[in-house]
């Protein structure tokens, strides 16, 4: 089988397209690179969606945490503490075990005039269950970052907004929110990088890889177990993730430029590495 | 443990739970919490040593050493830590066996890698197949410690490198003016002063380390996650203590354990920061000086 045939057979194996059987013997470098790259689709899927949805929840939680009302502030504080204070690994297990306990036939929702059956089986599958956990987890970490940035929005900016007669939504939308994002962006970039790294935990933490559809690290450990040689598959994973990290840094750097575009060159904040947010 | 536990099927309610929670397997489960603490206590100084070495290498005037140091501290930035946890013990194990093979069986002529097998002579096996079970377990545990130390050493190298650069330049210039050599200035001036700059990063690293301990499970160590899965799974009546699937409750217990551990660490590290800022020329130290006694 030539390398191009291998690519055609396995490039989308992780989402169930192409050859069903994984290679079992005489592993070639081409097979390893293709299959591990195919697994990367899941890492990007989990990372990108969790980051996207998490962004909105994080903004809401950060605002709630900044609220004067105890009833709004306390739940936000507990949410952040719960997800930042415990290991992601345990959160995955906990989520999986509780999704498994849900009734298999679905839950009947009685709406009075009609009974809906909400099926629950999909929650135990990685594409949904793990995504929910990652979404909540990144929302908590990002909320803490956004909250810190919200507290350091310069007083003068808010006073200026008041002087222009801005209130409520327009003040938030035009003054507070952009400044908060600008201040939080370097830390948020790090959060994004580590979220993508954390997606490799999914298939090692309870969620089964259904029909051997796994992520990059799942296939790498498959090859390492079969060939008994860790020196080829793991460096391939490392290479893919270095590329992915560079892409994330580039995209977030572009956004950083846009957020800082009104500032003089010297005052712009650069993105620096701070290992704040490993789970 | 209790005398009335000899026949569990006759028990119910509170007595059943008292016996269930003190049976032999649960004692092993409680012991595995000790394994986690031991891992933390061994890994933290080991990682600090790795990090210190990495930061020193990254500052070295010798180019190849500097590149190695920089690459070491940069690698955790691009590569997921879990990949290291899977790779390092595997690679270390084969590396050590390869070295021992060449040292102990020099006249062995078959290749070590035969297709998908890694074959070394019996005397080179680590641990030896004749050694007792606890040697295998200890070996596995220390492989895990090594993997943790490599990964967290890289994080610590980042933190310490930044802290070394944060010590005011004037301090080093003063040391040079006093005629200290580079080595003297490093050990007597830079190292004692860098800790306060490193502390926020290191305390953050400690929290990360705590939250990474369940990954021991991936390395095949019988840790708390292993026991929670084992004990929580549904037990049929052929077991002494039959019950349904209780894994959810066991994992809830682990969650509470970790939340408590991070909470306590947070409080202790806050106190340490206060003590270390005492008398320092930083904002924290200045605030302490101005505060009414």
TrEMBL record, chain A:
It is a multi-pass membrane protein. The lineage of its organism: Bacteria, Pseudomonadati, Pseudomonadota, Alphaproteobacteria, Rhodobacterales. It comes from Actibacterium naphthalenivorans. GO terms for biological process: amino acid transport; transmembrane transport. Keywords: Amino-acid transport, Membrane, Transmembrane, Transmembrane helix, Transport. It is found in: Cell membrane. The chain crosses the membrane at residues 44-64, 76-96, 126-147, 192-211, 231-254. It holds the Pfam family BPD_transp_1. This is Polar amino acid transport system permease protein. Residues 40-255 form the ABC transmembrane type-1 domain. InterPro entries: ArtM/GltK/GlnP/TcyL/YhdX-like, MetI-like, MetI-like_sf.
